[in-house]
Design a protein that fits this description.
alpha/beta, TIM Barrel, binds 3-hydroxypyruvic acid
Length: 251
């Protein structure tokens, strides 16, 4: 691909701080010569140890969500400002698990994207269709709509701090993977959508990841697609050798 690939791990709700330190120390030596960007997105409570362990390395550190207000009466929430103040550089927004289980909507995704950008973070914005939506033939329209709404109020300059991850919901944690052609088709739809809203140069520069059961066995084929510029990695990001093998495939 023309663009530099980014491989980001999404640890989800896994690893205590002590376990997180062990995992990051395991990943570090295996990815130190990576030719692509490497990011680990981890639970809030793991951020201090992971930031410390990643210091001086090529591993970027991210959170898995953030709230849109800077502070206030939002029990249980964490703001983008708070993350940035710790040295966190990335945040996943709109993961399908948040949309499915925590009432995330395109509108709240947009508010979180806006807040994350204002705090100086780079956003890994997730979009993707369910199996029913795919079978109804609305994947392209749906993903284009999710992308447009999420990017509402985002300037062309700010797009350099946006990574979009296409994650077909039916391929998340199910072991099912989109074929590389299916993945590329939707990644291209996302790129065309960004070209229509902004322009071709903005679309050409945008990193678009595929996510959904990407693993060493299928990474190379997915990453060889012209519009797939990296991956958002679930389960395989918890195994240093597997994560490193995917990083290697992106190099
Ligand atoms: C998966 O691969 O299961 C993911 O959800 C990555 O975010």
């Amino acid at each position: 691909a023309i663009r530099k690939a980014v491989i980001a791990g999404n640890w989800k709700m896994n690893k205590t701080p002590a376990e997180a330190k062990v995992l990051l120390e395991g990943i570090k030596p295996l990815v130190k010569d990576a030719g692509c960007g490497v990011v680990c997105c981890v639970p809030y409570v793991d951020l201090p140890v992971v930031l410390e362990a990643a210091k001086g390395t090529n591993i970027g550190v991210g959170a898995e969500n953030c709230h849109w207000e800077k502070s206030g009466a939002y029990t249980g929430e964490v703001s983008a400002e708070m993350l940035a103040s710790m040295g966190v550089q990335y945040v996943i927004i709109g993961h399908s698990e948040r949309r499915q289980y925590f009432g995330e909507t395109d509108e709240t995704v947009n508010k979180r994207v806006r807040a994350a950008l204002d705090a100086g973070l780079t956003v890994i914005l997730c979009v993707g269709e369910s199996l029913q939506q795919r079978e109804q033939g609305i994947t392209g329209e749906l993903v284009a709509m999710q992308t447009k709404i999420a990017l509402g109020g985002v300037s062309k300059e700010e797009l350099s701090r946006i990574i979009i991850a296409y994650e077909p919901i039916w391929a998340i944690g199910t072991g099912k993977t989109a074929t590389s052609e299916q993945a590329n088709e939707v990644c291209k739809t996302i790129r065309d959508t960004v070209a229509a809203v902004y322009d071709k140069s903005a679309a050409d520069a945008l990193t678009i990841q595929y996510g959904g059961s990407m693993k060493p066995a299928n990474a190379a084929e997915l990453l060889a697609q012209p519009d797939v510029d990296g991956g958002l990695i679930g389960g395989a990001s918890l195994k240093p050798e597997d994560f490193a093998a995917i990083v290697k495939a992106a190099t």
